[in-house]
Amino acid sequence: MGLAPPTIREIILVWLLLAGLFLMFGPDMRSQLQFVSAPAPAQQHLSSSLASSNASVEQQYHDTRMNWDVSSVPQTKVVAHVPGWSIIDRLYIYKGVVYIVSNEPRRVPDLSTIYSKGMAIEPGPDSELARLPDETDIRIISTTEATALFGSGAQILDGVTYFVNDSPQFIQHYYHWSAELWFGFWRTYSALDPFITVSGNTTLPPPCRMVFNRLDAFRWRDYARMNQWVTRSSVPELTMEFIDDWDDRAKMGVPFVFERVVLADRSAAMHGLNYQRYQRTAATAFGLLGSTNWWLTIRNNVIQFAGLNPVVEVASTRGRPVITYISRQKWGRRMLKPADHERLVLELRKIEAAYGYEVHIVEAEKMTRLEQLQLASRTTILMGVHGNGLTSLLWMKPTRRSTVMEFFYPGGFAHDYEWTTRALGMIHYGFWGSDSFTSPNVPPTAYPEGFQGNEIPLDGGVVARLCILRLSLEEDVDEG
Predict the structure, then answer these.
(1) Is 381 helix (H, G, I), strand (E, B) or coil?
(2) Which of 32, 172, 332, 396 is deepest in the core (most CB within 10 A)?
(3) For the chain, how long is the longest CA-to-CA vector?
(4) Residue 454 backbone class (left: φ over 0; alpha: ψ -120 to 50; beta: rest)
(5) Which keywords accompany this UniProt record (predicted)?
(6) What is the pLDDT of residues 417-439, one digit of tens each?
(7) Beta strand 153-164 pairing with 138-141
(8) How far is CA 458 from CA 192, 363, 432, in A?
(9) 256-264 and 85-94: which strand pairing?
(10) Dist. CA 200–CA 204, nearest whole Å
């Protein structure tokens, strides 16, 4: 006899049973589903990952050593190189000396363009000679020599390492850290991804660590405390090692090998043509190919850290223009004539009223770091006397209108902010009183008497008229 069909009462009981089971086990199931799209608490993440790993994957040994018991030492590969900036795979260090293992030493770039003694930069030929490396600093050795020296293996420093072979001389300065060292590191490394998008998305893994072999942990932060903000916001997971850590490894008498290193050396960069043209170490890195959007990876991370959505912020740069004048009038050095400062403020307020621009007259030292980053990211025209405050141009959105106006004592000029502005695809104007200039018609570098003084002349009316001209340009439709 066949089974009788279920009654309505039986169907209801089955549904109630299923509902009860869901209420009992549903939360755990839902949390597992959410884990894919949203971070779970650390302990849940750990236990869930361990359970998954134990259930489906055999435990693996964490390999911390590269062995070559029966084979030759893996050779070093120079992936990319320009003076002062190198991407190198399998770079070895042993007892404080850097080793390039190669059976074809002629294919290795001149060592003086890779590495130096890391000394402070002083003018003159004697100082240049003193900074050149010798065999106590860096060597090229064959695989046979490496086997005899290193033995049967080396400890692995995995991932990507930023390696800084510089003295503390320039590191404790916002501009030199962010617009030279950090700028140059990312311009070099980003050459490996020529397809970085306008959103800053990249296929490159972030660096794991940053190694300073000439610097202690107390001498990398700047007086404005911006260095750490830029570093921690753009690569939050980065760890740092300093001279004590370098000495620890050297004293162990054990070879180490960097899986991949991006190596920066200021003295080595000075051999490059672009350095000789612009006196900027990062300029030599632009000899490498790269994406036009290369800097947006770093910039957008910093802006997002400052509490702004880069997508929304990009849209805002196409609307009401923002003019930011960074005043140094209370700084005590390198200031406009008081009357010329007042005239500039008056002229800016006039065009604010007439054209609806958003104008900010600020003193960077009175702003928080977040306020500086937030304002810079929205700024269309940034202006001020030559000085550290203009480093904020790094966080501007490059558009056709984006402009930096820099005020110099007549006859004086430095490439610092001029070159950096152009490197980001923006326009720079220098001012000597009522005269202005822009690339390619810029004067030679000069620091005349009065350059650092407090009587810098400026015609505020000329500045305001140039602002109107620059902001009259139509934006490109595809800049976001």
Answers:
(1) strand
(2) 396
(3) 113
(4) alpha
(5) Glycoprotein, Glycosyltransferase, Membrane, Transferase, Transmembrane, Transmembrane helix
(6) 999 999 999 999 999 999 999 99
(7) unpaired
(8) 44, 18, 7
(9) antiparallel
(10) 11
